[in-house]
Amino acid sequence: MAKAYRLMHTIMATGVDDGRIRRNPCRIKGAGQEHSDERPVITVTTLVELLDNVPARYRALLLLATFANLRFGELAALRRDQVDLDQCEVRIVKATAETDGGRLIDDDPKSRASIRAVAFPEDIVPELRDHMERFAAPGPADLVFIGPKGGRLRRSNFRKFWHRARDAVGLPELHFHDLRHTGNTMAAAQGASLRELMERMGHSSTRAALIYLHATRERDKKIAAGMGQLFKDATRTGRAHSVRAAGSADRDITMAAEFRDSDGQR
Question: N or C: which end of the chain has fewer CB within 10 A?
């Protein structure tokens, strides 16, 4: 409906420009905006459960989708020489698209911003190294992810494994792309700036990256808790100082009284 309204608004605007009508009748505020359902963000615990429910050759696929914020097409086109396990970095230069006829095409990513280098946690390196040794194609510039028989990674072939895994963890509506969404949210929660999110995601527009900054709400709570702790510590220190000061004043009064008593005795 929103798309239809935007089309009608454009048609009417053209009519105004051409002098056919005096003003655009499409004036309903917000009618052209689309509001898609919020995609789920899974916990790391759930991710581990998913990893345990996919074949071993697809564990690294899920890890890079989450912790390097990669799209399925970028993973399908990934080559060995684009993964640096020492520097914990993956370079994205191509993406695989599947035509309606089932043909796979490796092409440039959808935007210049999608050509990027993304860091991933050192903690997943052992899993990635194991994958390279056991499941990736052998050549230095060969594909990282292939099927059991050496064929190209396809959504259609992987889908059955994904469906089994998500059903096993009780999330039948979970999409593979939600792993990227989860990774983006995690990055935002770690304090990534808008520009940093855009670079990790491979977006040239701020629109998509802004979606993930809502994750900083949780981080904001932690910041507030930290600020509260500082106040608590300062208050505790202040009270201790006041107690010490009061104690010192009491001692001074006592000493003065004792001095007066002794002076009177003399």
Answer: C
3 state DSSP class of 69: coil
Q: What is the DSSP string of 137-169?
A: -SSTTSBS-B-TTSPBP-HHHHHHHHHHHHHHT
Query: Does 212 participate in catalysis according to the annotation?
Result: yes
Decide if pLDDT at 252 tops 60: no
Q: What is the tens place of the pLDDT at every residue in 33-89?
A: 554 456 788 999 999 999 999 999 999 999 999 999 999 999 999 999 999 999 999
Active site residue 203: yes
**Residue 91 burial (C-beta neighbours within 10 Å; 0-12, 13-18, 19+):** middle
Listed in sequence order, the residues at least 6 apart from 144 whose beta carbon sits closer than 8 Å to its beta carbon are: 60, 75, 78, 79, 80, 82, 83, 131, 132, 136, 137
Mean pLDDT, all residues of the chain? 83
pTM: 0.69
Catalytic residue among 59, 71, 131, 200: 71
Please, how many CA atoms are within 13 Å of residue 188, restricted to the half-sphere of its CB? 23
Active site residue 177: yes
Q: What is the pLDDT of residues 127-182, one digit of tens each?
A: 999 999 999 999 999 999 999 999 999 998 999 999 999 999 999 999 999 999 99
Distance CA 64, CA 82 (A): 13
Which H or E run includes 12? Answer: helix 2-17
Q: Where does residue 150 fall: left (phi above 0), alpha (psi -120 to 50 degrees), or beta otherwise? A: left
CA–CA separation, 41 and 46 (whole Å)? 10
